[in-house]
Amino acid sequence: MSDARPPLPPFTFETATQKARLAEDAWNSRDPARVALAYTEASQWRNRSEFFSGREAIEQFLTRKWQKEHAYRLIKELWGFHENRIAVRFQYEYHDAAGQWFRAYGNEQWEFDALGLMQRREASINDVAIAESERKFHWPLGPRPAEHPGLTELGM
After folding, report:
1. What tens digit of pLDDT does each residue of 44-69 get?
2. How many CA atoms does the CB half-sphere of 126 hold within 13 Å?
3. Per its UniProt record, what Pfam families does this chain match (predicted)?
């Protein structure tokens, strides 16, 4: 069990919430290698209109993503769970190379193996251009501080 990524399924409300926050913290690191370790070697992904599998492809995808999405800050919120599956909704803010800010709105469905590694991820995401004054995620780059409100508390 040395490769285990607790919490492990079957999930409870508390462990599913913890799993979502751990994923949020990892993605906010913007470290593709770190994030990819949470997935199985053959993890199946759908991200928007891209379909791919495996840790190497995940790491390559995330490297490309964070080369284009600057000052990335993400909040994930548990939407539902059952046994080895979790659904989350999320929003993130970033700007492109020209300085245009965006807020991305999305949802993900996750399926985990017995070791707590994600074996399937399906994400639907929409980007909306926003003015810099409309930003809501202002913490320093990295994990969202524990005292920073989540999506529901922000009225999002």
Report:
1. 999 999 999 999 999 999 999 999 99
2. 3
3. DUF1348
